[in-house]
Q: What sequence folds into this?
């Protein structure tokens, strides 16, 4: 990424584009081919990480950092679950059934055909000088996307300021979708916390150690992608691997 | 040519980590020694044992690179480099002074946080790939801890970002020029508390004692790096010391005035050499000869490094003073104390800024806003007039209040930036 500032020539830009795209594709294929869950997650991280590299290359620094934080960070939780599941030896290898292969090939292949069709179909992308021109307008210091993005999310479309003033009155940017998503996330967060709580009290009559073990089993089954909850679960379930430590976690829960 | 500049920048940053690690490991041993009423290393390299780390490095290179039988060999080999690469990549967006940054990222704060969070990958992979239960326990603890502490850490980082009105670290640093009362930590009581919470969470997120559960040597032998030896082992430590310096530098820029000394020596120097004619028309930075700008930049780098080293030394002081927390205490500290405190600070600081309550700072966040485009600098006066005009006749822009400055000033740059998104 330090390179990004330095690359002004199209040649290097294309070189790094090919590099990141290549890494991304190769490791995406690796995810399919490998049988070990943890390695799959690791290859997925590499693939998504180099996609973030592509975003940085395009000057979309905010989106690139978002890619790192959300996708790569989200895969982190996947990796943790992978490590937790494969702690037992029988889950280490994952064999894909031939039928699944055929089905996946049909679905993935049709998607690929559609995407290629779309990529070839856009007229403005066929112009070979377009990328050069776009690159020239994209000075490294000029790639400022965060503020317009943030303003658009809070209801001001700064890119549409010059549009018809009559229409501008009705514009609210992406404020409504943003609020809906925020409220949705909040509901998920509270719901997850609430469910964890009620289950704890529902198992109250059972003995202490048994209760702790039940808690942990239930927590493991909740594959919620609320990040810090997931981390809490992983710590508790690890503690639960021995009886003595399971009791400790109950103590912690009761505090 | 530009590629060469990029490579030089990358190599310089690499040296910051490598030389930094050399110094910090020596400093850690000396400080640990002094705190425990010992001398620490005294012999290697004459006085003070200052070559001790180099001797250790030679020893580590000479050691056998051992891979356990049960290990997942490729992951085991690659894990230390991932931890190191994450620490290294975050440095690329970290400004050491105005202009002294490897790559100018507009959303540097966000980038640094995102990349810093990736360091945990190296630890988890190391723990898994070692094929040892001690390593696995350490890695899982680290995962739980780092992912949890990212929440309060992010909240604390958002506070100065909000006060400054930008995610650009260079702009945030430049805003705090002048006497030390301009530091964002003195903006209001909430930022002061947030700075302390940030430092706590940063210590936890770089996995330092008293939060070093991942390597708790009394319970887990050495945690995630139990099975590592030689150079790979030392890569974990370079990453750790690199991250320590990184979070301290981030704290310095966000809260403690960045590259500006507590007494505005840099501004005095620039004032002394400024050309009065240019000063009348342009800013102070444009009015001084280029070698003065360079000298001030060097002063800035020295200041930032000094402040960050103080931060690192405080971390060492804490490490050798406090006992290690238990894992449930670590999680409780995060979820029951740090998160609520950070949330209250966030709301409080926002209220303080919105109500424009009295502050020690004399920062005007709208004066030092990031310059978006070349046109902005030239047409500054014109745009201000234009803005005032539009204030009168355009009601909808009143909603944005102060934020409108960037909008109107740079609709050209904005459109440039957004042309990318419109394609989506």
A:
């Amino acid at each position: 990424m330090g390179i990004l500032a330095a690359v002004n020539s199209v040649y290097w830009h294309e070189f790094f584009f090919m590099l990141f795209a290549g890494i991304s594709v190769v490791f995406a294929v690796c995810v399919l081919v490998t049988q070990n869950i943890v390695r799959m997650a690791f290859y997925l991280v590499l693939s998504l990480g180099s996609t973030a590299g592509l975003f940085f290359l395009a000057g979309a620094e905010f989106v690139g950092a978002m890619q790192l934080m959300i996708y790569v960070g989200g895969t982190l939780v996947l990796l943790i679950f992978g490590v937790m599941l494969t702690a037992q030896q029988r889950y280490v290898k994952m064999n894909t059934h031939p039928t699944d292969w055929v089905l996946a090939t049909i679905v993935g292949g049709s998607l690929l055909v559609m995407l290629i069709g779309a990529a070839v179909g856009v007229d403005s992308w066929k112009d070979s000088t377009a990328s050069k021109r776009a690159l020239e307008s994209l000075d490294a210091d000029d790639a400022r996307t965060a503020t317009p993005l943030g303003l658009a999310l809070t209801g001001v479309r700064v890119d549409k300021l010059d549009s018809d003033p009559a229409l501008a009155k009705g514009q609210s940017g992406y404020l409504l979708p943003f609020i809906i998503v925020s409220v949705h996330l909040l509901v998920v967060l509270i719901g997850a916390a609430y469910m964890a709580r009620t289950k704890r009290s529902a198992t109250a009559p059972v003995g202490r150690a048994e209760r702790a073990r039940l808690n942990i089993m239930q927590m493991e089954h909740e594959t919620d992608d609320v990040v810090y909850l997931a981390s809490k679960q992983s710590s508790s379930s690890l503690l639960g691997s021995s009886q003595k430590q399971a009791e400790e976690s109950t103590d912690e829960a009761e505090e | 040519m530009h590629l060469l500049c990029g490579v030089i920048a990358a190599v310089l940053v690499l040296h910051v980590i490598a030389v930094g690690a050399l110094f910090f490991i020596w400093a850690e041993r000396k400080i640990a020694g002094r705190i425990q009423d010992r001398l620490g290393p005294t012999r290697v390299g004459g006085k003070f044992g200052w070559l001790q780390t180099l001797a250790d490095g030679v020893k580590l290179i000479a050691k056998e690179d051992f891979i356990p039988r049960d290990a997942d060999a490729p992951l085991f080999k690659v894990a230390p480099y991932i931890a190191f690469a994450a620490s290294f990549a975050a440095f690329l967006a970290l400004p050491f002074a105005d202009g002294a940054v490897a790559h100018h990222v507009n959303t540097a704060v966000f980038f640094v946080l995102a990349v810093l969070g990736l360091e945990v990958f190296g630890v988890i992979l190391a723990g898994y790939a070692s094929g040892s239960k001690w390593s696995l326990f350490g890695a899982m603890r680290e995962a739980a801890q780092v992912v949890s502490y990212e929440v309060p850490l992010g909240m604390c980082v958002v506070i100065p970002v909000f006060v400054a009105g930008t995610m650009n670290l260079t702009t945030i640093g430049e805003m705090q020029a002048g006497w030390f009362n301009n530091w964002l930590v003195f903006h209001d009581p909430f930022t002061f508390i947030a700075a302390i919470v940030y430092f706590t969470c940063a210590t936890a997120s770089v996995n330092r004692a008293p939060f070093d559960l991942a390597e708790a040597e009394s319970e887990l032998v050495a945690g995630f790096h139990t099975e590592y030896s030689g150079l790979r082992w030392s890569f974990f430590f370079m990453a750790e010391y690199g991250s320590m310096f990184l979070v301290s530098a981030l704290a310095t820029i966000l809260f403690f005035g960045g590259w500006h000394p507590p007494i505005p020596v840099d501004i005095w120097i620039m004032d002394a050499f400024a050309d009065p004619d240019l000063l009348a028309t342009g800013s102070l930075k444009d009015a001084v000869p280029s070698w003065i700008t360079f000298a001030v930049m060097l002063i800035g780098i020295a200041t930032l490094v000094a402040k960050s080293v103080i931060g690192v030394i405080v971390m060492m002081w804490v490490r050798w003073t406090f006992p290690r927390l238990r894992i449930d205490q670590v999680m409780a500290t995060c979820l029951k104390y740090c998160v609520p405190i950070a949330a209250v600070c966030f709301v409080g600081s926002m209220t303080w800024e919105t109500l424009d309550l009295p502050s020690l700072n004399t920062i005007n966040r709208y004066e030092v806003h990031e310059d978006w485009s070349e046109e902005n600098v030239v047409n500054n006066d014109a745009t201000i007039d234009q803005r005032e005009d539009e204030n009168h006749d355009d009601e909808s822009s009143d909603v944005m209040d102060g934020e409108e400055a960037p909008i109107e000033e740079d609709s050209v740059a904005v459109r440039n930036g957004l042309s990318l998104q419109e394609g989506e």
The radius of gyration of chain A is 24 Å. Chain A touches chain B through 71 residues (CB under 8 Å).
